[in-house]
Amino acid sequence: MIGIVVVSHSPRLAQAAVDLAVEMVGVNGPAIAIAAGAGAGVIGTDASKVAEAIAEVSSPEGVLVMMDLGSAVMSAEMALEFSDDPDLPVRLSSGPFVEGLMAAVVRAAGGATLDEVEREARGALRAKQSHLGDEDPAGLPVDSGPAAEHTIEVTLLNPDGLHARPVSMLVTAISAFEATVTVANLRTGRPPVPANSPTALLTVGARKGDTISVAAAGRQAVEALEAVSELVGKGFGELAAAHAPAPRPARSASRPQARPQGGAPSSGPLGVSPGFAVGPIVRMQEPVNEPGPAVALPLRERAAAAERIVAAAASVALALRDKAARVSGAARGILEATALMAADPGLIDAAVSRVTGQGHTPERAVWAAVGEVTAVFKEQGGLLAERVSDLHDVRNRIVSELLGRPAPGLPDRVEPYVLVARDLAPADTALIDPTVCRAIVTVEGGPTSHTAILARALGLPAVVAARDAMDLPEGSVVIVDGTTGEIVVAPTDDQVLRAEEQIRRVITFDGTGRTRDGHRVQLLANVASPDSVAAAIEANAEGVGLFRTEFCFLDHAEAPGLDEQVAAYRQVFAGFPGKKVTIRTLDAGADKPLAFVTAADEVNPALGIRGYRTAWQRPELLDTQLQAIAAAAAAEDADVGVMAPMIATVDESVDFAARCAAHGLHNVGVMIETPAAAITAGPILERVDFASLGTNDLAQYTMAADRLMGELALLNDPWQPAVLRMIREACQAGLAAGKPVGVCGEAAADPMLAAILVGLGATSLSMSPRALGGVAEFLRGVTVDQCRDAALAAVAAGSAGAARSAAALLLEPTRA
Amino acid sequence: MTNDTISLDQLTGWLTRFRDLVTEQVSYLTELDSAIGDADHGSNMTRGMDAVLEKIQASPVVAVDELFKGVGMTLVTSVGGASGPLYGTFFLRIGTSAGPVSTLDAPGLAAALRAGLGGVVARGKAEAGDKTMFDVLAPALDAFDADLVVFSDISSAARAAYSAAQAGRDATAPLIARKGRASYLGERSIGHIDPGAASTSLLFQALAEILDKE
Question: Lowest-confidence range among A61-65, A134-138, A459-463, B142-146?
């Protein structure tokens, strides 16, 4: 009978594995010797012990050595060199430690040869793999390495890629399965990271359009991958939200400021959530300070100290989950994501090993461990860098917990106040009570920071990048203008009164858009689904300038049928009897991918098959839609116009008009969203009845700047003179042809820009219903000549900032 | 006058000085290892070298091979981690190469060190750029050999080896680990000096210092 040697870092592990194996054979088993540990309680392996163990069980039939990992393998190899008996057959097995040992002991007890036992041990994973359904398809025994894996490759569709929210959804989804999952970004080619670690996942840096490789092993590997695939395919639920224009920083109207061209949006206070507020300043508690260096902990205290980190992190995670359960919406998601980060095993392990290895105090270890991760985040920049405050929040909470201090957080107040902070952690922002906190001012942050997003969601005025805000004395009253970014310190009574008036005033639109001197401009509403009809009617919109039809197609595996479409369109048309409703045909692709028309593998989807181009491939979709529109229009009394998105050539316009005519639709137009369409607007308007400018895409394509990239926000500004010139080109073509050219992009919702658009020749402006009042009021305050002069000046300006300043100068005075 | 041999006493001094250096730098080594490993390199190396010195003092030796075989075996049985078999093999092969002599001349030392490197490669299967002790050992020995050809001075060669070792150690920082536990970290191992490379550099520091004393 052969002898068996068991090599392990841990004597307990080795003994337990041997006990398990010997149960199978009782006293009739082979001779087994253990070589485990490096003596004196040291976890490790010792080649001389292995050599002794081999000698101990040596038999003429040979010896099989089972090892755990790492130095065990090297020590075993080394032991072979120590052997006194070069003729003794000794084999090192690459089989799995527990299963292989079990198989080897059983086979050896049955009198098998060394070769047979070795082969059995090497293939010992087969039973488990077969049981779990992940057997190697070739049926070959797995020689070494991890269990067979399943891998899928999926392309990210959601606008921001694997940022904090999708990461937390991914981690949560995967945790439900018995599977070990890793994720790698094929674009960067970096090694895979564990999918149970949110911080590691964030470092993957996967953006929209990147293909990630997801590998899973374990009993429910397939199910885990299905869950991942579904999440990614649905864009983590963010695809529908992508309809809304990317948040754009409001810019100062009363205090125009020069901004670096193309630089980061970081100079000067930036209004990021509109509205006025008056109140005394309350500063956030100063952040938790970096724990000072301390004498290294004695070895015997380290285990207990490390345990405290685990406990503190768990308690912070629990508290955050508790808070998450008490709120809803975006706030909840962010709190849940923060809770996941607090429980991140990668982070905790890193901190723990600093305690056990270097004897750091727990608070210092946590500080340093987070520091390492944030350094990586900062290095990668972009969206990842914005997540740094999330991690610092987690760090501060755990350190406070370790120091026995109350969790850092919002002031506990019942009287109204204006919150001033260096930077707000999402977990803090999420808990702000908008009935008490009246405005948010931060020193750090940008237009896409959590502070900005959540403030807008809460309807709280917010100003970020207010560099000197922390110097403002606690309790001093300020007026905050979340549109301009202006902060008035110690305002006069008069200023306070006026601000309070502004806060109370709800500007209503009387239903007829015009300038002070009576120049008519139709003010219309953008409608994205039947649900938003009511808001448009309430806001007294003169009609609908952009009825987006994507809602009908989203969440569908195939295009909706004729009847379904007719019913949906009728709901909107019915809201505007006798009024204009301009419906746009399906605009899929780029930031609005639809499974049945959008190829997932486009290198550059913004320049790919999108908008009207999808009709090249699926003309029947367009025909069905036009048929549905015609039927719905016939059944209702609205004045229906139809337009096609993303037109680039005259031929496309001709083609579209012909298709519409075939369905009896005669008020036909096109969207002008490409520079190509803008500069050929003349010939295009010879073939169609009207045009509508989509300023978001027009800015993106004119400036060659991805509108979904926060870093390019300054380029993606409709105030850029180049964009204004494109708009002018199209509007002038309309005036020459005597055909209406409107604007339905978000630019129309900026009151001052709306005046410029009127000055450039736009005949209608379509915007989200809540913007109607402000735009109508602004236009009522200026004459059309003022608008034209301001437009001329803006177009001639050297920069977006200069355009805005010039416009402000020419439009402001007469309004007062 | 140039030195061209290293005595048994000097070799013992080398090991003693190496023990002192790893002891002085135990927290540095552990810190490096805690960044990309299991935070035990400092304690493993000091435990191993303490055992080596204890053994040398307990039973003095008369030949170089005897000395290094003892050193290698002691490290193998006392270190625990992967450094045990790796350093152990290194010294065992040095002993085998040197043979039963009481002094080594410069080419003899060079050959012995080279044999040690061969042992490390055989044991760890590391290659250049894997972010391991190999990335210090190989350039240090190359420098040792090259310097010897030009100056025929064992101390000068040891100094050259030490300075190549330092450069090799520092050059491991930007590498991605491909061996050992650090390899599980992949990209995250970037920016950290390999602890094995750092202790190997101390080995050459010790050799240069001991040869300079004469």
Answer: A134-138
Please answer yes or no on whether A70 and B181 come within 8 Å at the CB atom.
Answer: yes
Interface confidence, given as ipTM, is: 0.74
Residue B30 to residue A358, Cβ atoms within 8 A: yes
- For chain B, what is the domain count? 1
* C-alpha to C-alpha distance for A553 and A50, rounded to whole angstroms: 67
Model confidence at A330, pLDDT cuts 50, 70, 90, reads low
Asked if residue A413 and residue A392 are part of one domain, the reply reads no
> Do the chains contact at A74 and B85, CB–CB below 8 Å?
yes
Q: Which of A39, A191, A356 is nearest residue B78 as measured by Cβ atoms? A: A39
Helical spans, DSSP H, in A234-361: 299-326, 329-342, 345-358
Gap between the Cα atoms of B35 and B39, Å rounded: 7
Residue A55 structure tokens? 């000698």
Residue A338 lies in a domain: yes
* B76: chain A residues, CB-CB within 8 Å: 46-48, 75, 78
Q: How many CB atoms lie within 10 A of CB A260?
A: 12
Same domain for A581 and A708?
yes
- φ, ψ at A693 (rounded to 5°): -90, 125
Is the pLDDT at B126 greater than 70? The verdict is: yes
Residues 6+ apart with CB under 8 A from A639: A543, A578, A579, A580, A581, A667
What's the CATH code of the domain at B180? 1.25.40.340
Number of domain units in chain A: 5
pTM exceeds cut of 0.95: no
Measured distance CA(B177)–CA(B192) in Å, rounded: 10
Q: In what order do the strands lie in the sheet with A276-283?
A: A270-273, A462-464, A437-442, A417-421, A276-283, A477-481, A487-489
Give the containing element (helix H, strand E) for A13: helix A11-22
Question: Which structure tokens are listed for A718?
Answer: 């409709």
DSSP annotation of A296 reads P
**Last residue of a domain, which of A402, A433, A465?**
A402
Nearest by CB to residue B80, choosing from A42, A203, A353, is A42
